[in-house]
């Protein structure tokens, strides 16, 4: 069954409601290079293989939580992952930009394998308020389609992750937003950022658009440095890791780190460098990079480390003493 695209454009645009829904029926065919617009979602396939069977497409005004900006207040969701090759676009109202800059809009999508992806190379036509991107090949899969600014990440499942010392215990707390297919959180601990051990498991909400807070107590933290991270596991077995937070339960080393934030160089000042065994940089992903190259700093007892080759972001500097004691400091490169 083939539909005339002008009829689809006119009919579905006029019925463009906040929570509109479209059902394909048993068979819905879109010919190659034929443009259809379904409640603001514009599709123009490249090939004559776009045949939908029992597809349901829903438009929602509920934005996907993101950082630094959420999506626009227009999200199109299929009832199942849908393959498509060709142009994908959105017509939107400027009142639904939700803090996004129109010039910087990019098509964003979600599927179970890639999770949320904010694309690059989208085209924006401000005269008709339309953003689009051409998807080539045969491996494109869409479950949700929306738009957001180029530097935004969707969704920010983990809003915050903190660790606090309470006596001889480590209190961990984290909050999430817009959980999708979330099964559980595995709490992991490491002394050096290389080997991680699971020390606990906290059940997740599953699917939730509300902000939720979780807690975990480490009753037996190790002496010295304790690095913590979360392994966030979905029902399909896929997972991602959180950022790393650090607590130190024994550190007598007199060490200072400056400037912080930094741009090109970091100075580390120690009371006795003969007691220092190593200096290492730990990324938020847990990668450990030896910092063997340094030169004398401008201040007595200081050494200067070149940070120009490292990307902007948050890092942890790990200073290990000859006796095994560890001092860790978070630094931010601007």
Write the layout of secondary structure elements.
Blueprint: H1 5-14, E1 21-23, E2 28-30, E3 36-38, E4 41-45, E5 50-52, E6 56-60, E7 75-83, E8 86-91, E9 105-111, E10 115-118, E11 123-125, E12 130-135, E13 141-149, E14 158-166, E15 169-176, E16 182-190, E17 197-203, E18 212-218, E19 225-234, E20 239-241, E21 245-248, E22 255-258, E23 265-270, E24 276-283, E25 288-290, E26 295-296, E27 302-306, E28 313-321, E29 326-333
Describe the structure.
The radius of gyration is 25 Å and the shape is elongated. It contains 1 helix and 29 strands. It folds into 3 domains: 5-149, Chondroitinase Ac, Chain A, domain 3 (Sandwich), CATH 2.60.220; 158-248, Immunoglobulin-like (Sandwich), CATH 2.60.40.10; 255-333, Immunoglobulins (Immunoglobulin-like, Sandwich). It has one helix at residues 5-14, and strands spanning 21-23, 28-30, 36-38, 41-45, 50-52, 56-60, 75-83, 86-91, 105-111, 115-118, 123-125, 130-135, 141-149, 158-166, 169-176, 182-190, 197-203, 212-218, 225-234, 239-241, 245-248, 255-258, 265-270, 276-283, 288-290, 295-296, 302-306, 313-321, 326-333. The model is unreliable at 1-16 (pLDDT under 50). The protein has 334 residues and is mostly beta strands. It is 3% helix and 50% strand. A hairpin with a 6-residue loop joins β22 (255-258) and β23. The chain has a 6-stranded antiparallel β-sheet, with no helix packed on it. The chain has a 5-stranded antiparallel β-sheet with strand order 3-4-8-12-11. Strands 16, 17, 19, 20 and 21 form a 5-stranded antiparallel β-sheet that branches.
């Amino acid at each position: 069954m083939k539909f005339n695209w002008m009829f689809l454009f006119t009919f579905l645009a006029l019925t463009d409601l906040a929570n509109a829904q479209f059902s394909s029926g048993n068979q819905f065919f879109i010919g190659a290079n034929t443009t259809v617009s379904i409640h603001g979602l514009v599709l123009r396939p490249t090939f004559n293989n776009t045949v939908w069977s029992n597809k349901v497409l829903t438009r929602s005004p509920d934005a996907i939580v993101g950082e630094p900006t959420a999506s626009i207040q227009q999200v199109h969701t299929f009832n199942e992952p849908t393959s498509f090759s060709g142009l994908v676009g959105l017509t939107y109202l400027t009142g639904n930009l939700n803090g996004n800059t129109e010039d910087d809009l990019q098509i964003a999508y979600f599927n179970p394998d890639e999770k949320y992806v904010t694309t690059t190379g989208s085209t924006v036509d401000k005269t008709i308020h339309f953003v689009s991107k051409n998807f080539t090949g045969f491996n494109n899969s869409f479950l949700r389609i929306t738009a957001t600014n180029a530097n935004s990440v969707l969704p920010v499942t983990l809003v915050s992750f903190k660790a606090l010392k309470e006596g001889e215990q480590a209190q961990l707390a984290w909050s999430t937003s817009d959980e999708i297919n979330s099964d559980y959180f595995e709490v992991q601990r490491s002394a050096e950022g290389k080997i991680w051990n699971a020390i606990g498991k906290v059940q997740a909400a599953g699917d939730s658009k509300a902000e939720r807070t979780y807690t975990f107590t480490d009753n037996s933290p190790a002496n010295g440095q304790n690095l913590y991270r979360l392994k966030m596991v979905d029902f399909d077995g896929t997972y991602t890791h959180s950022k790393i937070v650090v607590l130190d339960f024994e550190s007598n080393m007199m060490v200072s780190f400056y400037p912080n934030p930094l741009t090109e160089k970091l100075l580390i000042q120690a009371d006795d460098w003969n007691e220092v065994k190593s200096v290492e940089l730990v990324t938020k992903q847990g990668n450990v990079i030896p910092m063997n190259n340094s030169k004398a700093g401008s201040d007595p007892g200081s050494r200067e480390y070149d940070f120009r080759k490292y990307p902007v972001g948050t890092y942890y500097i790990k200073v290990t003493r000859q006796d095994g004691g560890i001092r860790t400091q978070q630094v931010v490169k601007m």
